[in-house]
Amino acid sequence: MGPRIGPVGEEPQIPGKDTKAMMSAEDTPGGKASPNPRDLRRSVFYSIKFFVLCHSLLQLAQLMISGYLKSSISTVEKRFGLSSQTSGLLAAFNEVGNTALIVFVSYFGSRVHRPRLIGYGAALVALAGLLMSLPHFISEPYRYDHASSVDMPQDFEASLCQPTTSVPAPTPAPSNSSCSSYTEAQHLAVVGIMFTAQTLLGVGAVPIQPFGISYIDDFAHNSNSPLYLGILFAVTMMGPGLAYGLGGLMLRLYVDIDRMPEGGISLTSKDPRWVGAWWLGFLVSAGAVALAAVPYFFFPREMPKEKHELRFRQRALAAAASSVSKGEDSPAEQNPGESQEKQDGLTQIAPDLTVIQFIKVFPRVLLRTLRHPIFLLVVLSQVCMSSTVAGMATFLPKFLERQFSVTASYANLLIGCLSIPSAIVGIVVGGILVKRFHLGPMRCGALCLLGALFCLLLSLPLFFMGCSTHEIAGITRQPGNLPGPDLFPACTEPCSCPLDDFNPVCDPRTHVEYLTPCQAGCTGRLVQEALDKSQVFYTNCSCVVGGGPVPAGACDSACSHLVLPFMLLVSLGAALASLTHTPSFILILRGVKKEDKTLAVGIQFMLLRVLAWMPSPVLHGSAIDTTCVHWAQSCGRRAVCRYYDHDLLRNRFVGLQFFFKMGSLACFALILVILRQQDKEEGTQVTVSTSGLQQQLLASGPGKKPEESRV
């Protein structure tokens, strides 16, 4: 959010003016007037530094709760029987409410009590977090084996091979016996609650960042504002990393830790039926957001303008005064005159407009901005890059689980410890390069092109880092079809095996996996107790050479050792992609009119949400669903996918990422072509000029950088 828009009839704030005399009763904490000006100095709620601290913590907690669903997406799929397309739509649904309201934030500016509105938004975010955890409490306890509906010991017995004479023949869809209108209604209610919570999460996040940034920019010293915003962004960027770290911790706990069955469970986190305590992370992050929201109800609507520049900043600026005077102005640092000039430019768009007038003027500004080729190409490149990030952030944990046989907890820890910090480093390095070398538009475009090119090249080895799906007895390569009894090996003919039971066992000698011990022909079960855990084995297996025993659980991938090299390449690619973040913003800020800059940035974020963050998770989820080779069935409908074609999954997931990176690279290449064309046009204009003017230009400006006015 840029400079604030003043309300009708309100006197604009003068940077050097002491505003304590203008404070009303509404401006004081709690709404009470403070007659003594010294009390204002003593109140911590009149300190912009304290506001920066509170806002950093709030945005950290808000991004943590927004990103937590992505860390537990595969767990939510297994718990409620969702396809990847549905879970991708769920992950993207928080952008719906956010996109619908974010444009009006540009209109409201400071017409409202910004701290209180931030507090109300944060309270709504916390409520949405509590609502996301509600499905756990209204659902029945999780049953990882549906073969029996009595107790745990009979669950294991029902998975064994039993003679067809003693057990009735299985029906084509045994799970339908437990289906009822109540069960289906409960499933729809659970899904509806989660979609509603995601929408409220997006709506509550609307005022937090824009109003907070504009509040800091209004009342901080003009020289301190960039430093405060830098601290704010640095702390905020740790939010997604904490979300994955929190997911890694919570998913180690069993989902029904609050209502464990008698005798406990025999699952481990490596079992494909394991479901972690996904709901607990929402409670923790919602509590953090609620605590961070409390101070905002005590901040005033306006506070005195910060008068003094930070001392260490004064010394740093004095030491760098000579170098700054020779180079171009930093995009983040502006003098008071420039800041006031930007505010005046913004008032040319919507200074005192009503909502109806703002809606009428917005399409004209949108069309005028989109007609600028540099702006349009930069936004398209960022759309491609954001689509890559959105798909990777949503489904990379699930991809690692399936491709390399790692637990959901370990996958989240890898992402939180490698990918997120690498992206942060890339953003910081990109900003340092722009600042240190005073990069103009041409060099910013070249830096973006190089970052996108090397990011694309690092994606090529990912196509070959993985293994094919191991053999699964009775599973065909036709997605969506349940295997019939005629597809099972002949050794299971004496058995009566439930068709939709899922209790996998693995033959370690042949590396063949069976859906249940019954399909392996096993008639006995043995539990081997150990100090830390117990291991379940199945014996007398007619389909296994030697009769077993075979351990319970899925077969491990033969490529588990490739997970770390894979993540290192992904993290390095994330750093190179993030390197383009700051230079691309510079291209936008230099490429539009001054009076359009604030709304241009708002339009940019709106387009990123509409074109990238909303459709990309759904697109990636749909691509993942097309690689499924065995679906679970629930009440006659297709539920969660149990097995994927690993080669197809890798090629389509990485290939979709590669496609978006190619699009970003093409956009940056076109930007460089346009900038060079503008250089040639400028050179032609100089050639047409008089020779005396040419000599004067060459003599007066030999060190002038031609990039400064190219856009």
From TrEMBL:
Transmembrane segments: 50-69, 89-110, 117-138, 185-206, 227-255, 275-299, 374-396, 408-434, 446-466, 562-587, 599-616, 653-675
Coiled coil start-end: none
Classification via SUPFAM superfamilies: MFS general substrate transporter
Keyword S-adenosyl-L-methionine: no
GO biological process, any: sodium-independent organic anion transport
PROSITE patterns in the record: KAZAL_2
Keyword Ion transport in annotation: yes
Membrane topology: Multi-pass membrane protein
Keywords of this entry: Cell membrane, Disulfide bond, Ion transport, Membrane, Transmembrane, Transmembrane helix, Transport
Gene Ontology CC: apical plasma membrane; basolateral plasma membrane
Chief localization: membrane
Positions of the UniProt region annotated as Disordered: 1-36, 321-344
Locations listed in the record: Cell membrane
Domain Kazal-like positions: 485-545
One GO MF term: sodium-independent organic anion transmembrane transporter activity
PANTHER family: ORGANIC ANION TRANSPORTER, SOLUTE CARRIER ORGANIC ANION TRANSPORTER FAMILY MEMBER 2B1
Family membership: Belongs to the organo anion transporter (TC 2.A.60) family.
Name of this chain's protein: Solute carrier organic anion transporter family member
Organism: Callorhinus ursinus (Northern fur seal)
